Every structure is written in C-alpha cells, then in structure tokens.
Amino acid sequence: MQRVIRLMFNRVTLVTLAILLQILSFILIIWKFSSYFVLFDAIFMLISVLVVIYILNRRSDPAYKIAWIIPIMLFPIFGGIFYLMVGGRGMSLRKKNNMKEITSQMRRSLHQDSETIKCLREENKEAYNQSRYIESYSLCPVYNDSFTEYYPSGELFFKNLVEELKKAEKYVFLEFFIIEEGIMWNTILDILAHKAKNGVDVRVIYDDVGCVFTLPPDYSKELESMGIKCCVFNPFLPVLTFSLNNRDHRKIAVVDGKCAFTGGANLADEYINERERFGHWRDCAIKLKGEAVLSLTVMFLSMWNFLSKTTEDYSKFRPEVLDRDVECKGYVQPFDDSPLDNENVSEAVYMNLINQAKKYVYIETPYLIADNKMMVSLSMAAKRGVDVRILTPHIPDKWYAFAVTQSNYEELLEAGVSIYEYTPGFNHGKTFVVDDEYAVVGTINLDYRSLYLHFECGVWMYKTKSVYEVKESTLGAFDLSKKITYEEVRKISKIRRIGRTVLKMLSPLM
Fold first, then answer.
1. Which three-class secondary structure state does DSSP give residue 287?
2. Nearest-angstrom CA–CA distance, 289 and 281
3. At how many degrees (to 10) do helices 62-74 and 76-86 cross?
4. Which DSSP string do the residues of 296-357 spell out, in sequence order?
5. Positions of E strands within 435-479
6. CA angle 230, 176, 60 (to 5 degrees)
7. Beta bridge partners of 378
8. Tens of pLDDT along 107-140?
9. Cα–Cα distance for residue pair 196/170, rounded to 1 Å
10. What is the pTM of this model?
C-alpha cells in the first residue's frame, strides 16, 4: 500500500498527470470551439497547413519532418497548435541569446595553436580537414601534447575517477545526465563533500529529466548544504513546452584543469554493474591529461554560466603547471555539440569518419536509430569494400528503441554491414574506430535525440594509443556477441514488421 501511495505522489506521476491534463484540456477546447464555430475550425486547419509548410522549409532532417507532418495531417484541427507548443527544436529566444554570449566567451578562451594544425596538415590532409571542421563549428582546437587513456568499462572509469578526485586541490567540476544514489555516487559524494569542506571549489550539473526517477526534486539544495555548488539543467516542470526536447546528455568530469573524463558512463550503480538491470552493462570512458583538458573545462564553465546566469572568467581555471611526465602521442580534439546552433557537429564527425574510411569502421552504440544520410553512408562504405561492423545491445533498456534499431538491420545487412548484438546484456558505449588511425569516444548515440536535440560532447583522436585501445576493446566485444544474419532478420512476422515500420516512422519523436 505504501508503495502505491509513493507512486501516486511521485514527482514523475504528478508532472505526467499535469501534462496529460493540459493535453486533454487543449484537445477538448479546440474540439468544442470547432464544433460550434466553422470559423474556428477553418482557422485551426489553416494553422496546421501553415505549420506543415513551415516544417517543410526548415533546415532539419527529412525523417524528423515526416514524423511531425503525418500526425498533423491526421489530426489537422489541433495538430498544428500542438506542434507550436512542443515540436520546436530549440529553447526560447532569450535563452538562445544568452547561449550566444557564452559561446562568444568560449571562442575567446580557446585558441588553435598554429604550429599544431600546421603539423597535422603536413602529416595527413584528410585528418586536417576533419579537425578544421570540428574547430570551426565547435570552437574546440586540436592538441598534440595531450595524453589519453581509454577505459572499456564503467568499473575502470569509476576506479580512476575516484583516484583523481582524491587528488583535487583547487576545483572539481562534474556534469552528468544521470546521477543516482548508491555505491558509485555515494562514494563520489563523500569525496566531494570532504573536498568542499576543505576549500576546494566543487560544482555539479545534472539534467533534471535524466534524474527524474533517481533524485528527489530538491536534491540541488541538499548538495548546496554540503558546500557543493549545483545547477540543474532544464528543470522538469508540469508545463507543455518544446524546451523539454533539449537535454544535457553530456558526461564531463574535470579535476584542477589537469585531468578530465568523458564517455558513456553516468554516475549510477548499473554503470559499474553493482546493480543488474539488463544483464551485463557494457560502457566506456576516456581520460585526458594535458592541454586538451582545457576544452572540457571551458565546456563545463560555458554550461555553468548559462544555467547560473553568470559571466565567470575562464582563464583563472587554466592550471599554471601541467603534468609533463606522461607520454603524448598523436592528436586529441575534444568537441561539444549544441542543438541551438543549427550545425549537427556530432553527426558530421561520424559521417566524415565513415565516408573517408578505407579499411574498416567499428561502431558501438546502444541505439541504431539512424537517419537516411547515415544509413546511406554506412551502406556505401560496406559496398565499396570497407569492413563495417556495428555493436548493439542484445538485452535492451527500451523495447521501442530496440524495435527501431532492429528495423534497420535488414537494409544494412543487405549492403554488407555486419551487425553484432552484445549477448551478455546491454551495450551503452558510444565509440567509433576507423583504419587504426581515428577514434571517437563520447556521449553521442546514433539516434535523433543525440544527433539533433541534446547537448553532447566527445573526443576525436588521430593516431593516439587510445585508437588501438578502442579497437581491441570493440573486437573483444564482437567475440562475446551474436552475429546477426540476413536470413534470421527476414524471418520475422509481418505483424512485427509492420509494427517496427510504424515505430521507425515515429522514431525522430522518441
């Protein structure tokens, strides 16, 4: 009984009921007006037509347009109005302007070393072109004096993060999509509270929708009471708004500006297999040391200034002395991706790697909800003889996302792409490795939300030792996985095929 009561008064339940009530009221009001007044009916129909024209002329993915146009045309009386309320891709104009100011500050704080980019150009023109694109559109430079270490599991990430946090002397910055109380977060929290008590500047950012099931509503106040500064991204409120489309999906940890982490793992026990949800949880992270840490520091501070409405000087967080004892080889370029700038950086980075691959492309992703451009690139790479392999989960976390993932198998297999499902459980890693030369490790899924709607980040690498580490880890995962065959994909029932097709059509809205 107590469990039922807790569920009834849970924040998620109350907010969901409030939103559903708004939707129902909205539909009833429009239906009532249109029933009595032909003029209102005509106005709402006209609005829907104008909205469809607007969607068709927007600079967005065709599949995203179709996913909205179909329901609007099916329900023309209120479809257009509903899109205006929740269908937008960005935040309010005021928030966009605030983000532009912060972006300008980011541009002033990060500078491309001319000698580094010159060396890269002389070494490999294709790598240079990729790097120049990232620097131009994410404002993050490439470095040749930074160390990387790849962690093929959440357990290794956790172990190394704790070690680095214990060394913190000046500041600790954490920005994560999901935080949940348990062994992982409580261990980290104890260190953060101790450091804050001893004068270390400790700051935490978490996404409210990401944590809606895992943290209480006023958790930021609890952290503040421990001396830990906290900002919450886009609080989950019972209001229909398109701002719910934009989430902070980044995972960033920075310690004293000397060491930083990013990758797929959040701060909750399933990521380190202390709690089993979907079999064995496979994840990853990468650690940076050296000048490249500054890019992740500035990314965090940019989001912090945006949320806290401050204009803090980034330069004071640049360390005076960096660790020069570590071996630095190759080129490292952290990058971020914002849904507010009309440039899909993450997608472009992935597409560049696929299109320029000569020998192989190995991909790890929890979701294979790719748009037509990505599907064509993957298929064409396989058709020209590139060894394209993709690792997906065998035990999914979301049945509908997995259904869409599987709906893409047939087309890719027919083109010669190899697909493996991670038999031990759920693969949550997000990695690309290409031709023993390039790798990307980050937070970016192969789905519409990551590529178009979320704030994301990653690390592009060229000829670092971590490129080989990513390759060996992915090959090891293939050995543990089931290789999907074209014959078994063709055997699925017509009803299931139709269901997957419908879900695929609506996948941009998931």
1. strand
2. 27
3. 140
4. HHHHHHHHHHHHHT----GGGGS-SS---SS---SEEEEEEE-TTSS--HHHHHHHHHHHH-
5. 438-442, 456-462
6. 115
7. none
8. 888 999 999 999 999 999 999 999 999 999 999 9
9. 10
10. 0.89
